[in-house]
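Q: Can someone sanity-check these two? First one:
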Amino acid sequence: MDEVDRGILRDLVENCRATYEDLSRKFGISANAIRKRVLKLEESGVIHGYTVDLTSEMVGAEYVFGLLTTDGSLNDREFVEKIGSNSHIIAAASYTYGLFMLIGEYTDQVELLELGAFLRGRSGVEKTELHPILSPKGTEIVLTKLHLRILSCLVDNPRMSLVDIASMSGLTAKRVRRLLDEMVDSRAVKFQALIELGAATSIPFIAKIGWDESIIDIQGIEDWFKQEFPLTFWDIFISAIEPTIFCLLSGEDLTAVDNVVQRIRSHAAVCNMKIMICTHHKYFDGVRQKALADMIERIRKK
């Protein structure tokens, strides 16, 4: 992937309904060239798929980042499936040294405790860390029958064209556009690409970092990563209970990974760091997707 590919990926993760024309204007190449790049990213598996999701504020959910240390006896892919069998898990992955990581959703402390008990009860798990994380929650709006009629068209194909949505929903293209803009602009609904960095030649890895709060604040350290690693930084998960962050990055090879690691270690606020390379990753339906599916099912029955 080059810089343009990475830029396209980031934009599609933010809003996968961005058109080829939108991306063409931003990156200064033809819409057809953008289309070919997107198709290549899809065919290679870097774009794993597309999804429609309610934001967490719509269901009153919080996020948790989990790190499991195991005894090394587990089949990576099978155990990722076991983790994902819990209804609160939205993503899980295996890493080097018998480590597994996950992102979950919960709506109250009871659900968080139940999730912890579920994970600790898995055979082979030696240690469990659960970090409630700080993240944008979006806003809450009332989704009308018309909003849901459009979403029912998009759950299987989030990049469906306005013309096709209009034909399927019985609404005009102009009205479809207005309703879609309402959902996107309000940050109540997310249309995003799901990415699988390991499907390309790059090496995805997580950096678990302990940092000194007296030197730099949360926003400062996130901004530093975005500025310092514009091509390799993908996401950050900030613990709400201790000065620990989990950064998702990638490198073209082990030398590139090492260069990123050394640059992070040189930051004055970094107290300690552990690097874990991803070997397998999978997405799962969580609380928000199930809530949206229930809303859509209710209007289909009426």
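And here is the second, same format, sequence then tokens:
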Amino acid sequence: MEFLKKALNPLRTLFRSNKVEKKPQTTGALLVDLQRALNYTFTNAAFLEHALIHKSSIIQGDSKGLDSNERLEFLGDAVLNCLVTEHIYHKYTDYSEGQLSKVKSLLVSRKIIGEVAQTINLADYLSMGHSEKKSSGQNRTSITSNAFEALLGAVYLDGGIKAVRNILSQCLFGRIEQFRKDKCNINYKSKILEMSQADGFGIPQYPLIAEEGPDHDKKFIVGIDIAGVRLGKGEGSNKKNAQQDAAQHALEKYDKEYILTLRKGE
């Protein structure tokens, strides 16, 4: 849309600089493969090369991170948020602002953007330092999601807002309902918190019940108490996952009258 172009065009001017004129960090064959996966061909391949430079590959003399993809990530994050907002605004015409915000938060989350990055095998193209590679940094969601945002920033500078929208249409927008229905992407803690507070029960508590297993393979078991009533328990490889599991079980049996009845019986 025209207003988006007007809003984002100043960013294209701001981020164009000689900093992108670098020697290739990734082989030409790999760059061709990545562009094929994106269904987009760069006019200036230097933008693409720059987007693939993780800060760990910069040895010295770059205290501000100007040689890495961090600035492109900053730009790409803004473009991503703008286009996701535009898309869901038109897609969900009967949603309130609060409902739209929840959908947007899911779609721009590190988890989802990391999954999108996996679909184009973005980790295979990143230029990283030896220690980062040794610790499997290329497989970390935080790194791949940031790199995908940098890639969007590079595409925006090279081809404009329409080019980025086309990429998101094929990588992200067509999978929105899939992401929303995936139980792994549902924030059960947030849902039961809203219900508990709406009914005047305050914030749910998640007491730790037990820790099992060796340090390298821990299992945490937590309970979930609402207004002093134990509604269930959950388990997971860390406390956060255990709390999500507990909240999911609690949602299945959540009933305001049931909780009030148990409280009166205290």
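A (reply): Looked at the second one. The CA atoms of residues 114 and 145 lie 4 Å apart. The first strand starts at residue 208 and ends at 212.
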